[in-house]
Structures are given as structure tokens and as C-alpha cells.
Amino acid sequence: MGLLQKPVALLYDLLNRHRLFIRPGVKTDLERLYPGGDQEELCRNYYTQKIEKSLLIIIGGSLFAVFLAVRTACERKLEPGNAMKRGGVLEEAKEVALEAILDGGKERFSIWVEPMQFSAEEAQRCYLEFSESLPLLIIGENTSLEEVSQNLNLQENYPGYPFDIEWRSENVDRVTTAGTVSLALQEENVRLQAKVSYGDMEWEQELTVKLLPENLTPQEQYYRELEGELLAAEGEDRTEAYWVLPEYVEGRAVQWRRAVKDNSLFLWAGAMFAAVLVYRMSDRDLHDKLEKQRLHMKREYSDVVHKLALYLGAGMTLQGAFQKIAAEYERKRANGGPRSPTYEEMLYTCRELKAGIPEIAAYEHFGRRTGLQEFIRLSTLMTQNLKKGSSSLLPRLHEEAQRAQAEQLQMGRKLGEEATTKLLLPMVMMLGVVMVIVMLPAFISMGL
Fold first, then answer.
1. How far apart are the first and last CA of the chain?
2. Which of 111, 112, 100, 113 is nearest to 222 (CA)?
3. Using an 8 Å Cβ cutoff, are 256 and 99 in contact?
4. CB within 8 Å of 279: residues ≥ 6 apart
5. Strand (E) positions, 199-324?
6. pLDDT, tens digit, 9 for 90 and up, residues 87-99
7. Confidence (pTM)
8. Exposed, middle or buried: residue 35 (CB in 10 Å: 0-12, 13-18, 19+)?
9. What angle (nearest 5°) sits at the alpha carbon of residue 268, between those of residues 264 and 269?
10. 167: enclosing H helix or E strand
11. 196 and 221 in contact (C-beta within 8 Å)?
12. What is the DSSP-derived secondary structure letter of residue 102?
């Protein structure tokens, strides 16, 4: 990355004076992963990279959240003159969400805006069957047109009939051309006119709707008045490209804006959560990396013991055998071979021996750095041989090699059992797919 590396490093140096960052477990994992390295520098680089990732997520998420907030604010704006653009002539009616900003808060409306229309050529209408069924088609959730308390189902087209319908209302404050019903405090009859067209034919039909009374609170009554004014403004002149929203309703000023959902806050919160998650999971990833390295070293332990026993049996000294194994690995790695944490530890021990560290201390350091019981046991055998001058090292190495081989076989069986358990869920899912493939044709044939 590197974009914030320098300022993050300075921040780390400033805050780390009070040891606010370093956790003991992280420092131990870094020591075992990178033996011989400068631990302070390793901790500094590790926490700098981790903090930099988290900060980049926060900055990126915040910038995107700001962009989304600005875009939302732009979408809310209306055209100059408190106007809203209609759809094109060939477009269908569209639903527009609006917010009325009032002194006491804001109200939200969902209005169907009709597209621009040419002056329609009168045509003849037909189909007496449709005319007779029309009252049943428009009642919606109401029981009949004599008891209307819910919105009517006034549509431009009805399934099963090839007609275009244009609705007109005697009182748009009570029943709009979109079928929206506004109940009053008393019963009221409203006449609707349906202009049905098909090809060159057109008919007109009048229907009388009886609206039931409704008890409204003052706030609900004002909402109805506001909605009525809004619908009246929308239906005032549909030949214009824009329709102007009312600025005053019953003497109260109204500010309008588009009702657009603003997700910028959720995005910012998600970015913050992701940054914290990345910061927290970095330590876990580091520990998992160490555990994989320890598992790899356990697998290599048997190979190391066998090689030591082989070279000691050939007459080499312990230090010569140890250095020969490390030199062979170093030569293979220089030729493009894979990196091995076990042999890297042996190379580090060889460098300690060349630097003048006593052989016993170097072997003890080797066992402690690995942190594994197997290598600690091996280092103990080597140091005891040097301290006591015993000649039983070779037989004990053979015993250790046999034990290591048995432990490696046991580890292989354990890993195989774990792999079988992990494969159980995919096998069950595949079985479900096979069952569907086998049974689906049978169900289809039974249905036919």
C-alpha cells in the first residue's frame, strides 16, 4: 500500500510510548515467525500495515458515503420554479415520491404522474360487456360503489379487455383520476366519467360513487388538503413538460423535495465496522500463519532427526552434521527451492555458532525459538551429549526418529479424519442436487 505509511508510522511511534498497541501474543508470534529479526521494527511494521489498512477502509468508505450523500441531495432537488419534469409522450405513468417540508415537520406523498400527451383524437368506443362489468372492476377492496371507503381501482387498462380508459372525476378533491379516495366528514356522491377508446371507436360512461364518512384528526385533515392540492397541481395542465408544486396550502408555506432514501450513513457505519474487523482479524491471521508454520515444522521434524542420525552414523561430529544439513538447504534454496521454517531456524543457529556463541547455548536457543516440544526434546539431547560427553546420542536419535515417524503417521491419520469431516457438508449438498435431478422428472410427469 504505502499511501499512509509515513503518517501512520509517526502516529504509531507517538502512541506506542505508552504501549497502547503491542499485545504480548502478537510480539511472541512475530518472534517465532521471523527469528533473529529486530523485534521492535517487526512490531512497528506489522502494526503500521494493520492500522494503514483500517484507515484506508475508513477513508474510502467515508468518501463513498459523502458521494452517496451528495448524490442523494442532488436527486432531492426539483427543477427551477419548484417544478418536476414529466415523462415523454411514449412513456408510461410513473410514481413519484415527494416530501412536503412544513413548520411542524414533513409529510411524504406517493403520486402517480401522467406523461405528456398529445390532444387525443376522438374515437368511438365499443363492447357492451365491458361497460356492464366496469363497476365490478373499479370497486377494488370496497364491497360496492354504494359503500366506498377504500381507493378505487381506476386503471388505464384492465386485463382481458383491449381498451384504453381515461378517467375524469367530478370532484378531484374526493376521488382523483388515479382512484385515490379522500373521505370527508359526511357522505358524498361523486360522479366519475370513463372515456373508453379502442381503435376508431369510443364510448363514455358515467358512474356514481358514494363515499362513506370518516372521522379525521386536524393533522389528518391537513394531510388530505395537502394531498388534494398536490394532485390538483399535477392534473392542472398535462400538456406542459413540467408541473409546478403548490407553495402555499391553507396559508401555510410548503417546501418540497424528492423523497430519496439516503444510505450514506449505513455505508459509513459499514466502513467503520469493516475497518475494526480488519484490525481485529489481523492478529488472528498472524497467529494462524504461525500455527501453519508450526504444523509444517512438525512434519519436517522426522526428516531432520533422520538426517542427523545418518550423518552421525557416518562419523561426523554433531556440529558438522548440523551445519551440513543447514548448508544443503541453503544451496537448494539458492537454486529456487521452497523456503522451510525448520531449516531457516537451523541456518540461524549456524550463524550464531559462527558468531562465537557457545554450541550448547546455540542448540538451546534453537529449541526455544521453535516453541515445539519435538525440537525442544532434540535440543535437550544435543546439549546433554555436549555436557556429559555421552556416546549414546546416536542410539537415542534412532529412537527419536522412530518416535517422530510414529507421530507423523498419527498426524496424517488425524488430518485425514478432519478432511473427511469437512467434506461431509459438500457431499450432503451434492446428494440433495442428485435427489432433485432424479425426482423432478417424476413429479413433472405426475403433474402432466
1. 62
2. 100
3. yes
4. 50, 51, 53, 54
5. 201-211, 242-244, 248-249, 252-253, 255-258
6. 764 466 788 788 8
7. 0.47
8. middle
9. 115
10. strand 164-169
11. no
12. E
